[in-house]
Amino acid sequence: MIQRKQGLGWSDVDFDTQDITLLPTLDTPKTKKPYYQQWYLCWNIHVPLLLGAWLLLFTLGELGASRYAVHSCSWANIDQHEHRLVVIADPQLTDYYSYGMARGSWTLALTEFYSDLFMRRNFQQITRMHTPPDSVLVLGDIFDGGRILDAEAHTKHRDRFNWIFDTGRQSIQFYNMTGNHDVGIREWYSDEAAKKFQEQFGPSQYTVVLGHVELVVIDTIAMLSSNSTVRDAALEFVKTYGSMKSKHNYPRLLFTHIPLYRPNQGATCGPSRHSPIKQGQGVSYQNVIPKQTTDFILAMIEPAHVFRCIFLVLDALCEKSE
Ligand SMILES: *[C@@H]1O[C@H](CO)[C@@H](O)[C@H](O)[C@H]1NC(C)=O
Ligand SMILES: *[C@@H]1O[C@H](CO)[C@@H](O)[C@H](O)[C@H]1NC(C)=O
Fold first, then answer.
1. What transmembrane ranges does the database entry give (predicted)?
2. Domain segments of the chain as ranges
3. CB of 147 within 8 A of CB of 194?
4. Architecture of domain 83-321
């Protein structure tokens, strides 16, 4: 045991031999100890115990948490013939734009690798579910700095995407969407980035029937573009395809990267979200689309549910609302 004698400095601390075997550098207790050694002694830390606890926490965090999260989810409909769709929001692959790291630096390479590994591991849990999904919809913001990536970086990022979302032996169809981090927003909308994105991830707006529902994916980023050609094409899609209901008149699910308009007061976001969505915008984002555009979309598409994406400080949430 360590005893601290009343009124005396640390140089007068008595040591038990057991402690000394643990900390061999402390065999001359009569001399003044550097601060860290004093701190060490003060708490009497048992190193093997600490290592054991760390290892346990590490394993739980690295393997247990994702496993637990995925396995605590269950499909709403267990009918094997129903289509199962997983919606993934904002993977936002880390790049040199994310934290201002130099291109080609090892710090960037490590950051990219570990963030990719984290997502891959979580996705692997989804592919290994007892009944895996039939398809996956990525709700946009696949890239972080997509607006400024060159063609080479684009291809490299697509390869990273394919590695993270490796479906293994399962055949899972991917559906993609454009986000503000992929192509830029309003006056920062990059026509070039949008083209490159579509070459690698498919169209930015489409409809598809999966099971007994029709998915309508709209391009709200293009709708907010300051380029009127881009804007008109996105609105035209809503007008044209909105009026064309699927053959069986299936209920429609609307998917939008930017949430639809909501008033700042009195609009709740349901129990899964702790703070309401507030109107607001910045260089690379906008929280909601204008009321007029929202009314137009809802009148044309008449969705049964709306899925939208909203980026929080560290967390990406996707929500379903009536
Ligand atoms: C979505 O992107 C992935 C990766 O590039 C691609 O394999 C898939 O075909 C795309 N989906 C569509 C519907 O184009
Ligand atoms: C607007 O978008 C169209 C279609 O993508 C493109 O051809 C045109 O160059 C763009 N205009 C500007 C000013 O960027």
1. 40-60
2. 10-43, 83-321
3. no
4. 4-Layer Sandwich (3.60)
State the distance from the centre of ligand 1 to the C-alpha of 224, rounded, in angstroms. 24
CB-based burial label for 257 (10 Å; 0-12, 13-18, 19+): buried
pTM given for the model:
0.77
CA dist., res. 222 & res. 218, Å (int): 9
> Measured between alpha carbons, how far is residue 8 from residues 5, 12, 13, 14, 204 in Å?
6, 6, 8, 11, 73
**Residue 143 beta carbon below 6 angstroms from any ligand 1 atom:** no
Minimum-distance ligand to the CA of 234? 2
DSSP string for residues in 137-168: EE-S--BSSGGG--HHHHHHHHHHHHHHT--T
Burial class (CB in 10 A: 0-12, 13-18, 19+), 46: exposed
289 lines ligand 2 (CB under 6 A): no
Distance separating alpha carbons of residues 256 and 177, to the nearest angstrom: 8
Q: Considering all CA atoms of the chain, what is the largest pairwise distance in Å, rounded to the nearest integer? A: 89
Looking at the DSSP assignment, which residues form a beta bridge with residue 321?
306
With beta carbons less than 8 A apart as the criterion, state whether 234 and 219 touch.
yes
CA dist 244 and 103 (Å) reads 47
Q: Mean pLDDT across the stretch 42-59? A: 84
